[in-house]
Design goal:
Elements (H helix, E strand, L loop, with lengths): L3 E6 L3 H10 L5 E7 L3 E4 L6 H8 L37 E3 L3 H7 L6 E4 L8 H11 L4 E5 L5 H7 L2 H7 L1 E4 L8 H9 L5 E12 L8 H8 L7 H6 L2 H10 L3 E4 L6 H7 L8 E8 L10 E7 L5 E7 L6 H21 L4 E3 L9
Helix pairs in contact: 1-12, 7-11
The structure holds 3-(1-aminoethyl)nonanedioic acid (IKT).
InterPro entries: NAD(P)-bd_dom_sf
Organism: Halorientalis pallida
Protein name: Transcriptional regulator
Length: 352
């Protein structure tokens, strides 16, 4: 594959770890990165080590990404809890109040943009895509969004993306993302898929600071909370919820877009997909093995369950950011052959 220049919007846990993983991958050159206060652009390739060293331990409670937006017009929906230097601390960066606009302006030679921003307003990521489209960007946009309802909002933009030459890869993290793709492969044995059960385990003791945004998003899935509550809660309130659960929180029936992404790929009904898991912030060990179970009937009448497991030794950072870059590359291949529009992880797997 030819070289891929990419940009990262947001330098919280996901943005920074994606930059780090990219240094071990072939053909990937990060040329721009931003957060709420700063933007770094180097068309010959950012010095990732310097950028990470400058931003490490220097992230806001929302992952330093919430206000990676322009002129305060969009905050990603998260209450800002204080100033931090973030990307602006890097010698490669400039301070800015218009980080997304700055990346849009620098995007002439950018093949792909990873949107690693929190999505506490459901239309936030679609609106970020609108800004790129309005500015005439032609290339790949990738997000690691979670919520099912956002997919429709992106689908509504298909004509615009096609006219513009944008290939949008949505839900490209772990779940949805890696595990949705795994389900699409596991479904190939069957002519009729009965159900898909995704069950994840994450141990986040040392990674807690880096992933505060993820924990906040997860809390919105608990029975007594919703996305607005999670957005408005202070850090202390989030920690109080974690403490109420002794640091180990179990989630059931999460609204994760694996369901609509498998349905739009023709694999099963969205209602036949369940996503749940266990988050343990007291340990780096996974509290449970991450598993995808796909149950169905084969062409010759047998009923079976294909199971895909992640090794307990693999971290959430590895299982979100490796796949995000893999889907980014898959998006670039499509874009370079003139395939535009909205693609989910299951669309980039064998067809069903
Ligand atoms: C996500 O970021 O995709 C969702 C998070 C779960 C990640 C699962 C990783 C599994 C593993 O590493 O074994 C969570 C719902 N925020």
């Amino acid at each position: 594959m030819d070289e891929v220049n990419f940009a990262v919007l947001g330098c919280g846990g996901i943005g920074r770890r994606t930059l780090e993983v990219s240094t071990d991958k072939e053909h990937l050159t990060p040329v721009a990165a931003c957060d709420r206060n700063g933007v770094a652009v180097d068309h010959t390739g950012l010095d990732v080590d310097e950028l990470l060293a400058a931003t490490e331990g220097n992230i806001a409670s929302d992952g330093g990404t919430a206000a990676a937006s322009n002129s305060g017009a969009d905050s990603g929906g998260v209450k800002q809890t204080g100033e931090n230097a973030g990307v602006a601390a890097s010698v490669q960066a400039d301070p800015t109040e218009t980080p997304i606009e700055d990346v849009v302006e620098a995007s002439d030679d950018v093949d792909a943009v990873l949107i690693a921003l929190p999505n506490f307003e459901h239309d936030f990521i679609p609106r970020v895509a609108d800004r790129f489209a309005a500015a005439g960007y032609e290339g790949v946009l990738v997000d690691v969004l979670k919520r099912s309802r956002v997919i429709d909002m992106l689908d509504e933009r298909t004509d615009e993306f096609e006219a513009q030459g944008i290939t949008f890869v949505c839900g490209a993290g772990a779940t949805p993302g890696f595990l949705t793709g795994a389900a699409a492969i596991a479904a190939q044995s069957f002519v009729d898929v009965h159900d898909v059960d995704i069950w994840w385990g994450v141990g986040l003791k040392s990674g807690y600071e880096d992933n505060r945004g993820t924990v906040r998003e997860d809390i919105a899935h608990l029975p007594d909370y919703d996305i607005d509550d999670a957005r408005e809660m202070s850090d202390a309130e989030i920690e109080a919820v974690v403490d109420e659960h002794d640091g180990v929180i179990e989630f059931e029936d999460m609204e994760h877009a694996d369901d609509v992404l498998l349905e739009r790929a023709g694999i099963c009904d969205a209602g036949d997909v369940t996503v749940g898991g266990i988050l343990d912030v007291t340990s780096d060990e996974k509290p449970t093995t991450t598993t995808v179970r796909v149950t169905g009937t084969t062409f010759d009448g047998e009923t079976g369950t294909n199971t895909f497991e992640l090794d307990d030794a693999t971290s959430m950072a590895a299982n979100v950011n490796g796949p995000a870059l893999g889907y980014l590359k898959a998006g670039v291949r499509r874009n370079r052959t003139g395939e535009y529009g909205v693609f989910g992880p299951a669309d980039l797997m064998p067809g069903f």
